[in-house]
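Co-fold these.
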Amino acid sequence: MRNAFAAELTRLAQADDRIVLLSGDIGNRLFDPFKAACPARFRNCGVAEANMIGVGAGLALSGLRPVAYTITPFLTTRCLEQIKLDVCYHAAPLVIVAVGAGLSYANLGPTHHSFEDLAILRTLPGLAIVCPADPLETAAALRAALAHPGPVYLRLGKKGEPAVYEAPPDFAIGRAITLREGADGVILCCGTLMPNALAAAELLAGRGLAVGVINMHTVKPLDTDCLGRVFADARWVVTLEEHGLIGGFGGAVAEWLADQVPYPARLLRCGIPDRFIHEAGDQTYARQKAGLDPAGLAERIEAFSRAVAARETA
Amino acid sequence: MNAPVNPGVQAGHAAWIRGRVVALSHARRTPHLGSSLSCVDLLTAAYWGGLRLDPAQPDDPGRDRLILSKGHAAAALYAALCRRGYFPEALLETYCRPGSALQEHPGPRCAPGVEAATGSLGHGLALGCGMALAAQLREQPWRVAVILSDGECNEGTTWESALFAAAQPLGNLLALVDYNKWQATGRSNEVLALAPLREKWAAFGWDARACDGHDLEALNEVFAEPWDPAGAPRLVVCHTIKGRGVSFMEDDNNWHYRIPTADEVAAARQELGLS
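Predicted complex below.
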């Protein structure tokens, strides 16, 4: 996947002089073609990832299309505040490309593992989160990310990932792709476990179960139209991801499901809305604006209660 | 686009800004008064003559940029931008009222002239590096100024940015440290080993100078000095006094958090020649 990323970025940068590549002192030889084609627009930012994210935000706020690249944990948890404030708060269109996500560097130990990046980054308003399944989808996702008006987190594997696609997929951020139809149940998969999802569906077919597979490459924003169809039609749904069970893609789906009426999981969640607060005001004021004051809460809970009751009498 | 440089006129603007900052702190019960007062002359030199900018065109791609990395001095930034003509006093008066875009720390483009959201220390210099690099890549002649606090030089990211700027190098980047010798709870040379500050920046590859951060003529010279985008980034340690301009606030760190009373506002305004 990283080779597909580097090749596609080199191709795109030759056609768009706004593209700048920032590397956190990795990618030895990987970016030689980029450096040869666009020498001024490759900057090795050193082992200083937090600064690299801030620099990327400054470039993005000045009309350029920067891409920041290094190994997942050093690009995510290490510089969370820079991603939150410099990038997302400013809505700066930086493309953050994490290589070696999940178990890609399993052998290097927990310093290089990332089972928490989706859970943490998913909380940041305005950040699109995309997990391509294979090299062709990586190239397609990069093209979409560089055309996206806001910041994008692109979560890649390492190298040698098997192909899921024979031709470039029809890719759009936030739009799931059905890979296999099946009436009994559906696997919603995100990222590089896609071949395993397809293989599992094949095995299940041999046991008399028709299982669909949907590529939900975008964790945020979730394709809720797709989820609505899936949960309306399927007898059961599986989520599959190379990420911890807390707060990742499966967590995102569970959160969505919990808020649905008339789905059986009747849970109403209340909390701070998914946006930054752009106005002054004290705690009482801010709670009221978020619908978390007693009156606001009562109104929402009453409406939810009515909806559940309507479902029960239907 | 530069405003004419006249230290006498600048001093009048600085006094006005200080008066508004003190009054707003009292009216909205917002802290960081001492930190706001110490950087007023830096802002004045930047906005009146130091930078190429036009308040009527705050989004002009060719403008110079100023980032107040010590975002807790937002009141001084808002008052300076208002005085410079970026927005009317009616907006400044909404400062920290419920619903206002002007929060205690500046938000992204929360008002015309605000270049960056700051408030968490150690972010502004990296943003400034990105903007300065953008000017170089686009072969544009604009320049980026970043105002740092001395407490902010505690942050590791400040020094990551220092290393980066010197490596590129970003000669179109000018950093000013508002060296008021205090941070939130102690002397900035005692909390961490900050001194010798100018020499540290010089050792990091910067063209590092020092000046009196309340001497408008000296500050004007800082901005007027020729600069070369291909040269070393420039840093000026501006020796300042926390609470500058109000005798009973000067060098008294209680005013990092204390809110002035109505009587103290009146006394401050009198000292500033505003009454």
